Amino acid sequence: MNTRPRYRVNQYIRILEVQVIDETGKPLGVLSTYEALKLAQERGLDLVEVNPTARPPIAKIMDYGQFQYKQQKLIQAQKAKAKKVETKGVRISLKIGDHDKEVRSNQAKKFLDEGHRVRVEMILRGREKGRGDLAREIMISFINDLGEGVIIEVPFSRQGGNVSMQVAKKKVDSVKPLKEEVEAENS
């Protein structure tokens, strides 16, 4: 999956006339492609079509290998700066104690502060499967313990004996408070 734009270079430029910019950035005007290519070869450089949608297309005289290298470095720098958001998991149980709930809550807060999403999971076993309403209450209580800056991304869902919700840190935009979201889910 290559997202880099492709440029036409030298003899692959098929248009008759191009607007030419030299290696220093000075416009040379509209020239025939043949003349522009000849001028670039005299200077030991390449003719690169940088804007094919303009009329006439804009071509620049440059060292194409060096240009590709700089573009590749720029893409790598952008990838390095891009923040990778992961979904972290916190598992609680129907019979969770206060201390265990506090420990898991602190872990979830840490994940949220790092910018990750948190998937809160609960596995119901045996007779616990008949207590989906209690599981929902415990999940909502757990999420409310995380604080005001949390929004529900994936509402309460149940698949067999597994129940889960996914939360994230609230963005700067105005988002409905958590209590309103929970009330909307209940209705």
Short description:
With 187 residues, the protein is of the alpha+beta class. The protein contains 5 helices and 9 strands; from the N terminus they run βββαββαβαβαββα. It starts with 7 loop residues before the first strand and ends with a helix.
Question: Could you explain how this protein is built, in words?
Answer:
With 187 residues, the protein is of the alpha+beta class. It folds into two domains: 8-80, Ubiquitin-like (UB roll) (Roll), CATH 3.10.20; 87-186, Translation Initiation Factor IF3 (2-Layer Sandwich). The protein has five helices and nine strands, in the order E-E-E-H-E-E-H-E-H-E-H-E-E-H. It has helices at 33-42, 64-81, 98-113, 132-145, 178-186; strands at 8-9, 17-21, 27-32, 46-51, 58-62, 87-92, 117-123, 150-159, 162-169. The strands form two sheets. Strands 1-4-5-2-3 form a five-stranded mixed beta sheet. Strands 6-7-9-8 form a four-stranded mixed beta sheet, covered by helices on one side. Strand 2 and strand 3 form a beta hairpin. The longest helix has 18 residues, at 64-81. The mean pLDDT is 85.
